[in-house]
Design goal:
Largest sheet: 4 strands, antiparallel
Number of domains: 1
CATH class: Alpha Beta
Order of helices and strands: HEEHEE
Subcellular location: Membrane
Radius of gyration: 14 Å
CATH topology: Fusion Protein Consisting Of Minor Coat Protein, Glycine Rich Linker, Tola, And A His Tag, Chain: A, Domain 2
Membrane topology: Single-pass membrane protein
Shape: elongated
Keywords: Membrane, Transmembrane, Transmembrane helix
Number of helices: 2
Helix content: 10-25%
Oligomer: single chain
Number of strands: 4
Protein name: TonB family protein
Distance between the termini: 13 Å
Pfam families: TonB_C
Structural class: alpha+beta
Length: 89
């Protein structure tokens, strides 16, 4: 996803910041929800992260190791820095 975002949805080079985003993925790999839960303070950075999550979908379907889970919710911090390459933590 990070590589995809850097190639397809780069953020404006003059901005830096970090945001927290929550993503919900369904058993079939489909994106069920994506939301910014803590803004970077820059709408352009927040939107670049959301565009990346949506554009990189669908994701890999769950394998047998995921058991009977219907969805997976992931909350991560995204950092935009020098040159505005993504750094996900």
């Amino acid at each position: 996803m990070e590589d995809y975002g850097n190639r397809v949805h780069p953020a404006p080079r003059h901005l830096q910041g970090q945001l927290r985003i929550r993503v919900v993925i369904g058993r079939d790999g489909g994106l069920r929800q994506a939301e910014v839960v803590q803004s970077s303070g820059h709408a352009e950075l927040d939107q670049a992260a959301l565009d990346t999550v949506h554009g990189a979908a669908p994701y890999r379907p769950f394998d047998a190791g995921m058991g009977s889970l219907d969805t997976l919710s992931i909350t991560r911090v995204w950092r935009f820095g020098q040159g505005n390459h993504y750094g996900v933590r």
